[in-house]
Amino acid sequence: MKTICPYCGIGCGVEFEKDRITPTKYTTNKGMMCIKAALLPDTLKSKRLINPTLDGKEIDLDKALSILSTYIRRNIKKFSKNSIAFYMGAQIPTEDQYLFVKLGKGFIGTGVFDSNVRLCMASAAYALKYSFGYPLPTANYDDIDKAKTLFIIGANPASSYPVLWNRMLHAKNSDKDKKIIVIDPILTETAEHADYFIKIPPGGDIILLYGLIYYLIFKSRNIDQIENIEDLKNIAMTWYPSKVSQLLSIDEKAIRDVAERIINTNTVFMWGMGINQRSYGTDLGILIATMAMLTDNVYGEGKGVLPLTGQHNSMGAREIGALAGMLPGLRYVNNEDQVREVEDFWQIPRYTISRNYYTITEFYELMEERKIKVLWIIGTNPVISLPRSNKFKELLSYVDLVVTQDAYETETASSSDMVIPVATWSERAGIHTTGDRTVSYMPKIRESNLKADYEIARIVGEKLNFNMNRDLKDIFNELVKITENTPVDYKGIKYGEFSGYKQSKYKPIVLRTKAVEPNYSLQEGFILITGRLLALWNTKYRNNLKLIIINDIEEDEMLISEEDAKELGIKTGDIVEISTRENSLIFRAKTSNRLSKGIIFVPFHWGKANSLMDWKIDKISKEPAFKEIIVSSIKVVRS
Hints:
Elements: E1 2-4, E2 13-17, E3 20-23, H1 35-38, H2 40-44, E4 53-54, E5 57-58, H3 61-78, E6 84-88, H4 94-108, E7 113-115, H5 122-132, H6 141-146, E8 149-153, H7 157-160, H8 162-174, E9 179-184, H9 189-192, E10 196-199, H10 205-219, H11 229-236, H12 241-248, H13 252-264, E11 267-271, H14 273-276, H15 281-294, E12 304-305, H16 314-319, E13 326-327, E14 331-332, H17 336-346, H18 360-368, E15 374-378, H19 382-385, H20 389-395, E16 401-406, H21 411-414, E17 418-421, E18 430-433, E19 438-442, H22 453-463, H23 472-482, E20 499-502, E21 526-531, H24 545-550, E22 557-561, H25 562-568, E23 575-579, E24 584-592, E25 599-603, H26 608-612, E26 629-631, E27 633-638
Parallel strand pairs: 6-7, 6-15, 8-9, 8-11, 9-10, 11-12, 15-16, 16-17, 21-25, 22-24
Antiparallel strand pairs: 1-2, 2-3, 4-5, 4-17, 13-14, 18-19, 19-20, 21-26, 22-25, 23-24, 23-27
Helix pairs in contact: 3-22, 4-22, 4-23, 5-15, 10-12, 10-13, 10-15
């Protein structure tokens, strides 16, 4: 049967038959797939959760959910609705996420509810909302095929989105005039194929962007349409290309060539975690969007702004309000009219929905102050994936009841009081939305004795005497109604059969920039950067030995530039200790000619890098700065 791969935001169409997966000619992947999808059947079998447990002992599911409901009811009455916290993953279907949003933010009314989208796409969402009016991309994957120029900064699609990268290469090979621009501090697999590659020092991207904007301002034909452009010009005019060239040690001609290219051709602007996971990731996203505005590349065929989405249903999570501060239909709790619309739709009393909200990066303080009494974790692994992950694991003991609802054994499940097993991909049906807003219905194609996530939400809601939706079709019909007259459109999906529906490209209702003051100085010492490996995905799919063998970096390895290694007397295979303000860990060194001086690279899949992270977040989006971990020392422990 046909379905969608559950990994990245590309949403590749695949066919699953007798434990064998093959690609289909779907709108997103055009008949291609990557190695992770091919080996998905092996991954599905590994470390499944089967029985509910409480304090490590098996328990009947209904009894477990009765206990959970009692804890929720009792703590709301004794403390407040904000004593109940939800943290949800973005790889479960939209219907399931919606029912949890309705239960948590609606019926319970807690403001302590966030999605793990906070860790990857929050800064991009805030940047898009500020720049264009809604947190939506203005291009889709088909525009990548049609564009004359692909501008990629802080992303390595060859590793993170291999199918989309193959589409880019195929389009480039079919059009000799098509060019790829890559800006990155690492010579990635993507950069190796770029027509223009600008290798910047760590943190140098904001200065390079200003160097490009300086040039574009003089050439732009629609500059007067951009709000706040005069304030931006006052800053940009101080970053002339020769100054930027000297500061970043890059060729001034390369800056001018790139600027000329994007202002004279239809360009799609893309960025990834190298931009989002920064202490000023939102501002960087606004500057990239500004370049699209200055070059008349915001909207149209082969044009647009398209941040590359990490998780498979990250866009669906945003559309139905799973992120802290959001509500279904891209509504926001700081907009009173929008909150009242949702309260009226859900038929709940006025002010039931909290007008205040807390992100997962703010849960820490609430937990430390023992204000969170019940923490319900759904389909994600924060003990590994969060910043200061050791601290988060410690704080779980400050919560009266920690519940993990997941299909797989994870470090978070092992650290929880209650574990609720659920059905996984292919064992349940539902819709997902890709990074370019293609909505796909994924049918159930395998049987399971376990319940889907939405069924757990329904049972608990009913035990709390709330009127919950009974089945998936009912939830979907409600999704269609609650998103009417918003930019979210589910009406075109053929529910109940495998299908894909492309939502209309979002045409901005505003063009707005921001005067961002660069806070840049050449970094002394080392910055540790986290990242993905081609054959692994996030933190829950590390149990497939075939995938692990394929990777060229192992769990205990870190990469260091050959130049830095020579200065420090480090050789490949040496055992080194890396220390930050937060923690110290042991790694095996591996020298590389791909990294800029001053960078250490560690994959995040095993969580080691996150345990080294200090507490830096974007002040606007509250997204953690995983790409700015400051290393205080690195030394050889054993050669």
